[in-house]
């Protein structure tokens, strides 16, 4: 009998789950066997896209080519889902020379505020960005700026350049026949969608113009966060700054995509199963929760955010030593977020990534809870893996426990999630302080239950 169960349940015992471990590892091995072909497909598609973007730059040197795409290749190989990938096209403008006009209205989801990029009166060196195709003259005499760089105009210019570049590359046979067609270029609200064929796989890229800007991100300075990441990593990541991307026809917003990808990459340098657990849940999400992408649902970015929070809440190496336990560390965080309908942005926690998502969170919660309770059927990748399912790991009423952080933010802490892990029978930590803190949460919930009865 586990020590924590004896402490919290008064002697209640559970079946030995050790025999299920090979099933988790077998499922992971099947996922990893596809990583190399996926990485090769991505690299071929990237070569095609870079060839087109190099032509864009030759046509208009205001648009630069970003060759540092190693993080995107790493993430594409890591995941199973086929959601579009963002490709950033840096603008050749010095953000320090621009006037950042922050708006009072915030853009929920990926940044603290939206802003306009103003060009100061009598500014020098910004003449290429003061032409009518990307610039709008200010009508306000009192304004510090003579006008603004307009996202909708930038996107329109970039689209025309991409069409011309694709036609040129096809005509001069710079890209493989059939790999790219200008007709696949669709103008989204805030990006340009381009479909690239690599081998038999079609990869959709969202081409996004960005302005590089030095910007302080307070979350990267938190002492708590430093416990879960390699020493010095946060300082190096923060030094990159942030990207400003289109938020509307007139406004830009902060994008933290690059910073989050760097954090994910840093987790891969640590021992344990952090990235393995993300790969498993992404595969389960694709096949079981989204029905092979037939149903709308969680994205890889949602699950990546869950892993980042789990890494902060469980900074100890022993938390990630066991594959099954590692997956459940993501699951308890995910279930809590779905139950409270709030997945906080990792770097800007006041922003909820589930708000206005259009997803049926109740249905998704039921699917995730079912997997957490009886994961075996979703881990079978071949008919030979059929067998009897284990009894459910949790009793009714767990959703009420998962709701607690919505009413009291102090529950968003390691001890609370340790308590949930124990409910799912996957808490094996022997640290006395952790067990004591978990006991306190257990007693607190018992007291609450008595008061409400």
Written account of the structure:
The protein is of the alpha+beta class and 453 residues long. The chain folds into 2 domains: 3-17 and 270-447, Poly(a)-polymerase, middle domain (Orthogonal Bundle); 48-67 and 84-227 and 241-254, Beta Polymerase, domain 2. The protein has helices at residues 3-9, 21-32, 35-59, 70-78, 151-171, 223-226, 233-238, 257-267, 274-289, 300-313, 323-340, 361-373, 398-402, 404-407, 414-423, 432-452; strands at 85-90, 98-102, 114-120, 135-137, 145-149, 186-187, 192-198, 201-213, 242-246, 252-255. Strands 1, 2, 3, 4, 5, 6, 7, 8, 9 and 10 form a 10-stranded mixed beta sheet that branches. The longest helix has 25 residues, at 35-59.
